[in-house]
Design a protein that fits this description.
By secondary structure, the chain is of the alpha/beta class. It has nine helices and 20 strands. It has two domains: about 280 residues, Aminopeptidase, CATH 3.40.630.10; about 120 residues, Aminopeptidase i, Domain 2. Helix content is about 25%, strand content about 25%. Strands 1-2-3-13-4-14-18-16-17 form a nine-stranded mixed β-sheet, with helices on both faces. The chain is globular and about 70 Å long.
Length: about 425
């Protein structure tokens, strides 16, 4: 198999990220890609048929999509490519209007693990969903400079370069105007932007985002600087791979899952620790008339490739990486290993990943953390435990993980998509 993805995939990733400032927008953009390829949205409350073709179902900020080939046996297993839609950010509180000393501000709460200083002095927008009294969710996206978190001037903090401490309650509150904080009326402003009556808006899930667009960087444009690479690069790669797999499916049913809430532990009704994926896969098999034995056989023949970003070796901090494992941006997808199951990879899963990269014709590289510096985790171990299926954790190597803007090699996104496609179509 030759690589069927190129730099145009990265170009489209930039569009995808720009259009996806929140998990709800990422799901909508993924659904739009799938719908354009002929996939059909299903409702969780409706009866599902056994017709072949591409289908997807949305639950809040999560999506599961799959393609059923013609004449597939009831016990046919799945090849699941997993990812997550959320990124560390600042979320708007239930009472958003705040301020002090003649400034209007927005009350926010830290979501996930952010390097706080990267949010200072950035032009920020606000996006998310407004929920009306009838329970309907309405997307809103102010993708222009609206907010800013100003840092204190060096004249007022002479020790700033010796180590700055930012209190998340007092120092990360964005400004968005002048005047009486009681007149801030953020929700009224957003409701008007969304074409809604403010009296109808009863709740919201709103997040702050950097409005600077993605860009190629470097003398030859070999790098990509971009918000939310963690982990929209994987969501986009999985969607592109699934669409390609639908054109010439292999011996399994290819699946994309993109979960919300990974950055805060995955424990939600739409997160990886919930039953969403398990329920969908069981319904897909049951729709083909499978009984309990055939469902068990289908799961036994299933494998998951969980994709999330990992750390490229940092040129200024190479001592913080394992000396024998220096994955670098541009070296292809990384195979993530941790013996304490922070990643789900074992030798059998690693073999699946290597075979997929070989078929796709893309390079790959191993990743493990320095022994004295414990690694993070992702949806891989959670999904493996929830489904009881073979799972391997992979990703691409980036710098500045969890910062407002992250950095990767411009070729790695399409290397990942090619490996995902090969994994889905064995």
């Amino acid at each position: 198999m030759t690589v069927r993805f190129d730099r145009t995939h990265t170009d489209d990733l930039m569009r995808f990220v720009s259009s996806s400032p929140t998990p709800y927008h990422a799901v909508a953009e993924t659904a739009a890609m799938l719908s354009a390829a002929g996939f059909v949205e299903l409702s969780e409350t409706a009866e599902w048929d056994d017709n072949p073709g591409g289908k997807y179902v949305i639950r809040a900020g999560s999506i599961v999509a799959w393609f059923v080939p013609e004449n597939v046996a009831p016990h046919t297993g799945f090849r699941v490519f997993g990812s997550h839609t959320d990124s560390p950010t600042l979320k708007v509180k239930p009472r958003p209007d705040a301020g002090a000393a003649g400034w209007r501000q927005v009350a926010v709460e830290v979501y996930g693990g952010i390097p706080r200083d990267t949010w200072l002095d950035r032009d920020l927008g606000i996006a998310g969903r407004l929920v009306t009294r009838d329970g309907a969710a309405h997307l809103v996206n102010i993708d222009r400079p609206l907010l800013r978190i100003p840092r204190v001037a060096i004249h007022l903090d002479r020790g700033v370069n010796d180590g700055q401490v930012l209190d998340p309650q007092n120092h990360l509150k964005p400004v968005w105007g002048l005047g009486d904080p009681a007149d801030g009326e953020l929700i009224a402003y957003l409701a008007e932007e969304a074409g809604l009556a403010v009296a109808d808006v009863v709740a919201w899930d709103l997040m702050v985002h950097d409005v600077q667009p993605p860009a190629y960087l470097g003398r030859d444009g070999e790098l990509l600087t971009c918000s939310r690479l963690d982990n929209l690069v994987s969501v986009h790669a999985g969607a592109a791979a699934l669409i390609a797999a639908s054109e010439n499916p292999g011996s399994h049913v290819p699946v994309l899952v993109a979960f919300d809430h990974e950055e805060c532990g995955s424990e939600s009704y739409a997160g990886a620790a919930g039953p969403f994926l398990d329920t969908v896969l069981r319904r897909v098999v049951a729709a083909r008339g499978a009984g309990s034995d055939q469902i068990a056989r289908a799961f036994a023949g299933t494998a998951v490739m969980s994709s999330d970003t990992g750390h490229s070796v940092h040129p200024n901090y190479s001592e913080r990486h394992d000396p024998d494992h220096h994955p670098i941006a541009g070296g292809g997808p990384i195979l993530k290993v941790n013996v304490n199951q922070r990643y789900a990879t074992d030798a059998a899963g690693a073999a699946l990943f290597v075979a997929a990269c070989d078929r796709a014709g893309v390079p790959w590289q191993p990743f493990t953390s320095r022994n004295s510096m414990p690694c993070g985790t992702t949806i891989g171990p959670i999904t493996a435990a929830q489904l009881g299926v073979l799972t391997v954790d992979v990703g691409i190597a980036i710098l500045s993980m969890h910062s407002v803007r992250e950095l990767c090699a411009a070729d790695d996104p399409f290397y990942l998509a090619a490996a995902a496609h090969a994994f889905m179509t064995p």
